[in-house]
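Appendix B, example 12.
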Amino acid sequence: MITLSLKDSGALLGIIDEADLQLLMDQLEEESEADVDYYINPATIDILEENGASAQLIALLKEAVGDTDGVDVVWSED
């Protein structure tokens, strides 16, 4: 099980599958192999959607970003 949370508050966003995690890893920049966080903004969501992200992942990220410029999201494997 892979959970997504807001980096700053730790608030749980939801659960994603391995395919969506792999898409995040493939499409977004990681600072190192141990990097488990990503900055998500509306443009990032558009890119992920264009590259095959699931409707569930897109909905979670849109809810997380809301009316802000963007948020840092972390993932963990439980």
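Strands lie at 2-6, 12-16, 37-40, 71-77. Residues 2-77 form one domain.
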